[in-house]
Amino acid sequence: MPLAVMPEKPAPTVAIIGLGLIGGSLALALREAGEAGELLGCDKQADAVAEGIARRVIDRALQSPREALAQADIIVLCVPTMAAADLLADLTQEAARTGSSAIITDVASVKGGLEARMLAQHGCVPPRVVLGHPIAGSERSGVGAARGGLFRDHLTILTPAENTDADALADVSHLWRAAGASVVCMAVSTHDRVLAATSHLPHVLAYCLVDTLARSPHGDDVFRFAAGGFRDFTRIASSDPVMWRDVALANRGALLEAIDDFAQHLITLRAAIDAGDGDALLQTFTAAKTARDSFSALQATRGRS
Amino acid sequence: MPLAVMPEKPAPTVAIIGLGLIGGSLALALREAGEAGELLGCDKQADAVAEGIARRVIDRALQSPREALAQADIIVLCVPTMAAADLLADLTQEAARTGSSAIITDVASVKGGLEARMLAQHGCVPPRVVLGHPIAGSERSGVGAARGGLFRDHLTILTPAENTDADALADVSHLWRAAGASVVCMAVSTHDRVLAATSHLPHVLAYCLVDTLARSPHGDDVFRFAAGGFRDFTRIASSDPVMWRDVALANRGALLEAIDDFAQHLITLRAAIDAGDGDALLQTFTAAKTARDSFSALQATRGRS
Fold first, then answer.
1. Which of A54, A143, A252, B238 has its CA 20 to 30 A from that of B131?
2. Where is the signal peptide (chains A, B) (predicted)?
């Protein structure tokens, strides 16, 4: 008697709205993993769509994001942070009107604004909406910079609500694991505070330092004589200014708190330098080195896993 | 009639005082280039000397730095910044007493303190003393981390005084070029200001950020969810705390100025975020990206040259 075979769930049709670095890399990762059915794509910029098709990042173009509601199983909003809220509002309203059961997820760097918009519009985050954020990126941008390995050994944070559909959450989790990421879930407020500290604040500091030096009377010399430590420290200042303006505005509250914590500590360090208090400096530098070395070890473990 | 052949200048005997990352790497670079005669070494730590001989970083150990005055053509002080002034004072005094013509140079990250010490002691920087600073390093330290390629495609800054012996300057320049570095000369005060901006300030900011996050109530999460941008941004916070305490104290004046310039700019950026002034943020971020991209291009050119 032949064994009964469970029918395999077919690979989902995935629509990528916004064909930039993240959207393009996700499409490539899913294709390389064989974990997507048809890959649909949509972008305001016609040349991004053309490049996406030419590079076989996507299979077929959609004329508008709304078309995805009827044609895709999972819709991934990969537009800039500020545009994501309007798009999510429009798609969830249209999904409610048409009865679409497509799962909608996103990749925006800040989650609080999207959640607030959903609460205002629907009284809750709709069950088929799973807000998310892959913690990966590059100082390069655009679909031309997309690569399938971008999420490998990286985390994707999902921020499900109490009423989030369990199947929708599982499908979005599966999508990111298929793309090579590990998936963790946390509250929206935790996400925004953690990202303010580890990503948004460092970007502000890097932009701030480079602009300070560029304006200084010795600007030319400064860059001429800078070395490897400076190169690494300021790499993120080459990131897309529009994206980071939007992130800074979208995560204003948590970012201001992070800046204030940092500034308070910098004032203390400055006072120690001014006073020639070597013990205080050594204590801070040593504590920082210990924490940074632990972080390194953690990253190395993750890379091997 | 045979052509007259100029006798080649024999490769100098070089004494490395302080067998750490920099001293060890210089010795290895000179050996690999075939540009040193005997390589002598000296360190307070007996195991550093033993490791230096075992790894063939140096050929022979000196019992004390003073022995180098009679045995070496060039003495390179590779001890920590704070120890360099005392050592330089002792060796220049002993050189004056014994009539040694050995060239003395150093690698300390801050030059002002050494210059001031020489002025106080001798009324000038002695002609055979050439203060210098290779702009290279690593967050690793110790002779075990030494590698011959450390200075390749990097700059070494020399800060000759008006009365510096031209031959001594040429010999020290040659030494660093043999080790793979490009050599530039500038005033001590310029050096200390430029390094405060491009190196000492970034280290303080990186230590400050990592320590701020480590102390925060969400410290564990923060490091768990940090990604590549954070890793690069904070790499220099793994640097040797004792070395950087000394640098911060030795370059106090220029570092405080650099911190204040930065803090002033951070206050302006914070106000723009608080006010939701996207135009101001975009202007700063764009200017910084432009400057950083130019710096990248400059570095790429240097790497190819």
1. B238
2. none
